[in-house]
């Protein structure tokens, strides 16, 4: 007899599991007269979401990331009010002046909205290049896209100049 055959004979059968006769009796006896039911379960079918749903979720995620939602949750920035010393009028301060790496909640949301508006403008410009659309629709997409990108750029630069006075001058 070879060495591998003697080693295989020394190993117990893995299907037996135990040498206890009571274990074998409990394992075999109930299934001699009990039958498992035939379950006719249908697996749930999941349909893929539409392309617009996926695009909306990605756009919402992008908005939350560029708005600094995580920063706002962790730091919990307080809002400030500014009281004019001559007139006594009170107005809220929207931008945290002088700090590039800090923000108020409204500042982050408005900047994030401008970035998303610019991204939507680029998507509209891409839709305007479709050859299968009517000319009036293409012109509408192109004009809305250009307006969105220009408004986004101008407002973002305005926000940056408010935040850092004298920037790019």
Sum this structure up briefly.
Keywords: Membrane, Transmembrane, Transmembrane helix. This protein is mainly α.
Average pLDDT for all residues: 86
The number of distinct β-strands equals: 2
Structure class: mainly alpha
Globally, the shape reads elongated
Question: What are the low-pLDDT stretches, counting only 5+ consecutive residues below 50?
Answer: none
The fraction of residues assigned to DSSP E strands is under 5%
Cα radius of gyration in angstroms:
34 Å
Distance between the termini: 94 Å
Helix percentage range:
55-70%
The largest sheet, given as strand count, sense and whether it forms a barrel, is: 2 strands, antiparallel
Order of helices and strands: HHHHHEEHH
Count of helical segments?
7
Keywords: Membrane, Transmembrane, Transmembrane helix
Transmembrane segments: 54-75, 109-129, 141-160
GO cellular component, one term: oligosaccharyltransferase complex
Membrane topology: Multi-pass membrane protein
């Amino acid at each position: 007899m070879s060495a591998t055959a003697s080693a295989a004979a020394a190993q117990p059968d893995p299907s037996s599991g135990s040498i206890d006769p009571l274990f074998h009796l409990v394992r075999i006896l109930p299934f001699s007269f009990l039958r498992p039911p035939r379950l006719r379960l249908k697996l749930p079918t999941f349909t893929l979401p539409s392309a617009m749903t996926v695009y909306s979720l990605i756009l919402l995620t992008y908005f939350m990331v560029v708005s600094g939602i995580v920063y706002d949750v962790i730091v919990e920035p307080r809002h400030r009010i500014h009281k004019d010393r001559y007139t006594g009028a009170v107005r809220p301060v929207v931008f945290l002046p002088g700090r590039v790496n800090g923000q108020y909640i409204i500042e982050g949301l408005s900047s994030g909205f401008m970035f998303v508006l610019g991204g939507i403008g680029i998507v509209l410009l891409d839709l305007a290049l479709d050859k299968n659309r009517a000319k009036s629709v293409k012109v509408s997409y192109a004009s809305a896209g250009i307006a969105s990108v220009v408004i986004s750029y101008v407002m973002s630069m305005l926000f940056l100049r408010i935040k850092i006075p004298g920037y790019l001058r």
